[in-house]
Amino acid sequence: MNKDFLWGGATAANQYEGGYNKGGRGPNTFDCMGSGSFKNIRRISCKVDNKIVWIPRNSSLPNGAKGCIADGAYYPSHQATDFYNHYKEDIALFAELGFKCYRMSISWTRIFPKGDEEKPNEEGLLFYKNVFKELLKYNIEPIVTLNHFDMPLYLANSIEGWKSRKTIEYFEKYCKTVIKKYASYVKYWITFNEINFMFSWHTLGISSMDEQTRYQALHHVFIASARVVQWCHANYPQKKIGMMFSMPISYPEDCNPKNVLKTYQEMNNEFFFSDVQCRGYYPKYKLNEFIRKGIVINKENTDDTDLKKGVVDFISISYYHSGVVTIRENAETTGGNLIQLVKNPYLDASEWGWQIDPLGLRIALNQIYDRYQKPIFIVENGLGAVDEVVDIDGVKTVEDDYRIYYFKEHLKSLMDAIEYDGIDVIGYTAWGCIDIVSGGTGEMKKRYGFIHVDMDDHGAGSLKRTKKKSFDWYKAVIASNGECIR
């Protein structure tokens, strides 16, 4: 492994930070997410002027609100695991692990509480400045995601979020503000998290999910990203700014050419998002699909030029599992990262049904690099599992050998991709390096971290941090630059 390889961990503000009403932060769409899966979102909803709006629990209702439903749900992101009040303690633990980098996100509404303010929230700016200073005190490089699945609730309510081109302007202002403010602290920026999974109301702020509306909103996301990339290149050429998408590798069920073709088409559904951001234009296969479906993307004259000039420097990915594609109807499916896939009989699965496929990571890296020849940053990879705290000689810990095995096998594939296949990989940040609230289910029992946080699914607990067995294992991996797993 290259001596400059960036080992670390990753989290997201909406799952980890907490302090949702502290320091001048405004409400965002994720604040309305109750516990439970995205398929059965529990929330407080109101109808105002015949529009659906989303109101965080305990917030005052807007004028004209009618038909409100207060379901009394627990909102896990409001406290999350409280990085807001524990960041110094947690960063010290990251330093003990030997992190070279830490991937995190900035909460848009901590900087611009409504999204459209003239001036940013200085208290919010100071919070992240203090976080970055604390990281750099330990020589941990921040890797910053500008938008991780949330947006200002006010923009979602008032202009339906990314459905409006005005949101491009607001997002640009937010990004320019933080990139300029933290220029001396942050080298690596990522515009949007898992852009191929931005298909829900809390990510886009739109009330209708028909394909025409969704693709128009996503077009605005593409333009916003491209403009931020252009501005960053022009003003901070030494910085690196990338895109991020989830890479759920797919295999055909068998050698039936129809299954092979369908698999190729399914993978294009994911690669579409990276094609636009890495090549700078809409691919022909997607334009033909738009024609078949009658989807018309409304553009301004500069949009195509913006896409072409706003090509990213690197590709960041999440990788958790693989799946199988088949033309068979009623095939048995299994869980996945916000998607359902057909079961692969050759693979084991996690407690949440995500199929564990270490070799798939190597395949994915080859597919991406062959397609784009751009550096790749693995910014999410990990195992969600139910952990049990045990007492060993008076010391509390978690004997998570299953997690160690998962990481060991995936890291072997990563190292093979680099050393044998010649893939250019910048770094690796394990997802949920400390226990956080699950983004997909709102649970705490689905844990990923090397560090246990004492909190249950209902938000009860001391929030005490405890090292798991995997903590010392990952520390040794980083210290040996991966050699200890050979």
From TrEMBL:
Cellular component terms (Gene Ontology): cytosol
Gene3D superfamilies per record: Glycosidases
Alphabetized UniProt keyword annotations: Glycosidase, Hydrolase
Cited InterPro entries: GH (IPR017853), GH_1_N_CS (IPR033132), Glyco_hydro_1 (IPR001360), Glyco_hydro_1_AS (IPR018120)
Active-site residue list: E380
GO molecular function term, any single one: beta-glucosidase activity
GO BP annotations, alphabetical order: carbohydrate catabolic process
PROSITE patterns (alphabetical): GLYCOSYL_HYDROL_F1_1, GLYCOSYL_HYDROL_F1_2
Family: Belongs to the glycosyl hydrolase 1 family.
Protein name: Glycoside hydrolase family 1 protein
